[in-house]
Specification:
Helices cover 37% and strands 26% of the residues. The protein is of the alpha+beta class. It folds into two domains: 3-192 and 312-415, Zn peptidases (Aminopeptidase); 195-310, 2-Layer Sandwich (Alpha-Beta Plaits), CATH 3.30.70. It has an eight-stranded mixed sheet, with helices on both faces. The chain is elongated, with a radius of gyration of 24 Å. The protein binds zinc ion (2 copies). One zinc ion is lined by residues 113, 115, 148, 176, 387.
Length: 418
């Protein structure tokens, strides 16, 4: 058997504990920044496999490093956190966990984004590489990050001296389980996930009596004009060949029909696929808000508060081609093109901070016959639960086998030197 065949055959040895671990993680989900149990389990296993393991990076982040002679350094990443969602899958390993969120509220928690799949697959790959050291050379970094859902987990690890803890990688690789047929892997060169920004804008008027508008500056009118103008930005300022989304998701002002309020709050969500457009659109938002405030004679400058910010995920073309080539062998026609996704991720904060190229691919998690049936009926959107849905739960197999094999195959494209 070739080295890659040896490595891939290792899945037969890890499958049983991976399935057990997956069910365990699925029924014990933890909110962003609270991944204590999950990270302990990960660290325990990495140590037992001989990885030099560091815990508590950026809160609950864990990194294991396995050195196996001279050769490339490959970083594999998984995220660990779950969501404040009440699971409705009805599975016997479904979550009934509740937890206290940052605001102090008791909320249901579920692995509705499949990060339990990512953890299980990366631990499986780590196990297999550690038991087949004759088949590869180099250094493997297994990185488990907290708080992907809040967009600040990767940044937290970077800011907590990640670069001083791990050797400098040559490449960084990550994957996400998505709502397409289980068993498939999808690669995509270039921008694969959008950058996302949320902005809370506070604009000021002068409050007063509803019957005396001449004595007031009405923030309802001001906010409404801003909302309309912001909805024109994409059609008039973004090239027709580019894409972006700018949504005014919330506009709140006032309390009563005969009271003119003294301020309004708008909440905006922005999605872009390249940094230049992102910069231009943020500038357009601030320009329009400031100009409308001035046009209304607002007594105080507007305030901008940015939150839930996710970087652009733009896959390196050469790295993606190398991974796609590697996938062609074990996966055959199950290796597909993913296509651009409108979701966002913070994974790229890690390779960007370390100055290394990366690629991020998707693995399918949906039962194949269910998917085929929905596709035939033209009801994929209606019948297939997507990530973050309370009904989202990937089928265990072949999802875990595929995600584990994908991690091994991609890393081996660097670590096996023939
Ligand atoms: Zn998610
Ligand atoms: Zn996710």
């Amino acid at each position: 058997m070739s080295a890659i065949e040896n490595l891939l055959s290792g899945v037969d040895d890890t499958r049983a504990w991976q399935e057990d671990l997956y069910r365990d993680l699925h029924s014990h989900p933890e909110l962003s920044h609270q991944e204590h149990r999950t990270s302990e389990k990960i660290a325990e296993r990495l140590k037992a496999l001989g990885f030099t393991t560091t815990s508590g990076i950026g809160g609950t982040g864990v990194v294991g490093v396995l050195e196996n002679g001279d050769g490339p350094v490959v970083l594999l990443r998984a995220d660990m956190d779950a969501l404040p969602v009440r699971e409705t899958t009805g599975l016997d390993y479904a979550s009934d966990v509740t937890s206290t969120n940052d605001e102090g509220d008791e909320v249901p928690v579920a692995h509705a984004c499949g990060h339990d799949v990512h953890v299980t697959c990366l631990l499986g790959a780590a196990d297999i590489f550690s038991h087949h050291t004759a088949d590869w050379h180099g250094t493997l970094i297994a990185l488990f990050q907290p708080a992907e859902e809040t967009g600040d987990g990767a940044r937290g690890m970077v800011d907590d001296n990640l670069a001083g803890i791990v050797p400098q990688p040559d490449v960084a690789l990550a994957q996400h389980v998505l709502a397409f047929p289980s068993g498939q892997v999808g690669t995509q060169p270039g921008p694969v996930l959008s950058a996302a920004d949320s902005v809370r804008v506070t604009v000021y008027g002068r409050g007063g009596h509803g019957s005396m508008p001449q004595a007031t500056i009405d923030p309802v009118v001001l906010g409404a004009l801003i909302a309309i103008r912001l909805n024109i930005v994409v059609s008039r300022e973004v090239a027709p060949t580019d894409t972006a989304v700018l949504t005014v998701g919330s506009l709140v002002a006032g309390t009563k029909s005969n009271v003119i309020a003294d301020h309004a709050i708008l909440q905006l969500n922005l999605r872009t696929y390249n940094d230049a457009t992102r910069t231009r659109m943020i500038a357009a938002i601030e320009r329009i808000v400031k100009a409308e405030c001035e046009a209304s004679d607002s007594p105080k400058p507007p305030e901008f508060e940015y939150f839930d910010r996710f970087p652009l995920t733009s896959n390196d073309d050469d790295i993606t081609a190398k991974v796609a080539d590697a996938f062609a062998q074990p996966f055959g026609d199950r290796a597909i093109t993913l296509g651009q996704q409108t979701a966002s991720e913070d994974f790229s904060d890690i390779p960007n901070a370390l100055g290394v190229p990366y690629t991020y691919w998707g693995i399918g998690g949906t039962d194949t016959s269910l998917y085929a049936k929905a596709e035939k009926a033209g009801r994929v959107n209606e019948d297939i639960p997507v990530n973050h849905s309370p009904n989202f739960a990937p089928v265990i197999q072949p999802t875990l086998d595929t995600g584990t094999a994908a991690m091994i195959t991609a890393a081996a494209a660097w670590l096996i030197v023939s």
